[in-house]
What does this fold into?
Amino acid sequence: MGKKVKKEAEPPPKDVFDPVPIGSKNPATVVLMLHSPEQEVLVKACEAMYKFAEKGDENKATLVELGAVEPLSKLISNEDKAVRINAVMALGVMASHNDVKKLLKKLDVIPSILARLAPAEDTLIHEFASLCLAYLSVEYTSKVQIFELDGLDTLIRLLSSPDPDVKKNSLECIYQLVQDFPSRAAIRELNGIPPLLELLKSEYPVIQQLALKTLATITHDAETRVALRENQGFEQLIEILGNNELNDLHVETLVVVSNCMEDMDTVQLIQQTGGLDKLLQLAETSTLPEVQMNAAKAITNTAQSNENRKILHEQEVEKTLVTLLRVAHDGLRTAACHAIAIMCENLASKDEFRKLGIQPIVQLLNSENAEVKKAAALALSNLTNANHLNANAVIEAEGTEALVQLLTDQMVGAVAYAADVLTNMCTQEALRSSILAQGAMQALTEALCSTDSLVLSKVVLAVAALACDSDARTELRNVGGLVPLVKLLNSKNDEVRRNACWAVLVCASDEPTAIEMCRLGALNILQEIHLSTSRKNNFSEAALQRLFDSNLSIKYSFTGCLSSSNKITDGFYDYGKVKPDHKMITLEELYKQKVNQHRPVVFLNAKPPEPALTELPPVENKSPDSPGGRSPTPSKNSNKDKTPSKGKSKGKKEEEKTKEEEEIKIPQEVIVEKKQWLLPYDPIFHSLITNVTKSVLPLPNTKEQVVALAVFVAEKMGGPVERDRLHEFFWELHVSELKFQLQSNVIPIGQIKKGTFYHRALLFKALADRIGINCSLVRGEYNRAWNEVLLADEVPKAPGKLFPPKAYAVDLMHSPGHLMKKNSPEAIQYQCI
It folds into this structure.
């Protein structure tokens, strides 16, 4: 063979540059290089971008202003691997800046980033692409897009990556995604629980903590908790809690455990495996208050069901919670009080807390921390609910004063729960007096002016509970509590309005309070509520009736009917028929009005006046016919006349007498000025009561008493009047003459000598009530009124046995004493014109 000839090298093309080393310190130049068609230039430009952006947010902002984001977002999909790596690294670092996030969102870069998470891509690309997604997933719309593009499946796969940074970034993104409910369910469906549990074994605490935070979020879902239990995840959590070397993970672990223990199956499992003992021991012995606090929260979540409360009681959880109260940490004390409050649903636990001592909880009412006070009041509210022994224990622990002071606190919940405790305590009469002694009524009155519905609802109930005694109702009036209470009847909140009706029902048990509430408009409001289908409640009608029954004058004017149980007493007055929206005025106000043309008001008062003070001279008496007069009861000076000494002259005696009268007259004037208005005494009515007591009451049966009383009333009111001669019975003239004679619009019933139907019916009812005859009073139209009585007739063939009673109307006008069966033609004729 011939010798080989060496081939000469070909010269470089004439139209190509030799390699040019690139170097630039100007960011704008580097940004321009991102548009280069040469791969080597792009690689170096992207690498420079990454290093520049990594130095701080100012540099990232500079790159945004120079327009680097858009070309970078395109380069992450470049065919060249080196370009892709550097572009993804630069974009991943820059994505922490808010302006970059906004631009990436507009550029719709998420599909390209998810494509970089494919298994074929380099681990470095996975790291920074997942980092970019972690930053973007903070925004809600980005989370939705990632989820819709099946990004969650990709991220779960990356949890098994060998690179810890990929795991961390993917886990951060998953944590953001599971804040939305659809992603929580998807985690379970995509079998994401096992890789999350595997990360609990990571050597990097940050990964462990992120995994626990993610588990804490997704275990709010019951089905996820089941999946966690099926994958033995709960055992792993208990192991972490039992490992003191992992105490930095105990807080997050307890949050997951707390969620899981809402399920009874989990509680039974943890009890069987001894995990519950570990949890309670950790709560008592841990030196980290945050750990103890989350342990208390776990107990609270566990105690949500009755079965779980029984299990916790068997484990003596009460001792653990009382121990936690003594740790000087506000968050822990709050959590412990919440746990105590929920455990009180178990009756045995209520008793156990009392045995261990309620004092620590009571002391927390004086805490400077508002949340602690609120939680302590909540715990006491549940402890004292339907438990008088615990209520007594609060008193013994001197908690009343603190509870009353809490009513004026700025913390809404604290006020509401404090009122709750006082309501529970008020079920015992002995405790009510001690509560009143601490100024509770004044504090409750101030709380009634709150704008919070919860506070108002609870405080109104406390007022109702405390106002069971007449002394408490008197104090409520004196401190001005009736004004805001009546206003709450108009509340737009159904519960507040209902409770206010209940409070009015209770407070109207005595006449002075009922009268005051009527004066404040309670009656009108309750009538409006009664007529409303939407505002009416269980207590509104009862409260309305109680107000009526406590003030029969008002009841008769508004309803036109008094039942046999409504007993007319001194001070009753017939104002006449009024409309539902009318506001009645008091008898005192009527008495002080000038004489007018309106129908006179008839009143009853058989109560004699109080005797005059003996040391005062006699007051000039007015005649019984005088509207403000007293019966003529001339009194003598209590000082006996002494025989004058012989050394005194007649002039001297007269001078001393004049001086003595002047000395007495001065205090007399002072007393008259301070003396409150008294209802005029009606001596004639008094004598009528005396007469019927002697003549009617001794009769052998009710029927005879009714007939005799009817005849008596008719005789005192002008005698019988034939039906066709009613127009000749000039009762109007007689009543008008009385008005002008007395110079008053109010007339005592005893002064009326000619009375028509409504005068006679009123007098009959008043006298019947005094001697024990049960009868009703009914007002009709056009000055008609009548009385109805229940009478039982004897069975003819069985002496002593009675037929069922029947109702009769009593004739007081035409044939006094005649009894007419109710609703019979003659009764209807008597009641109508």
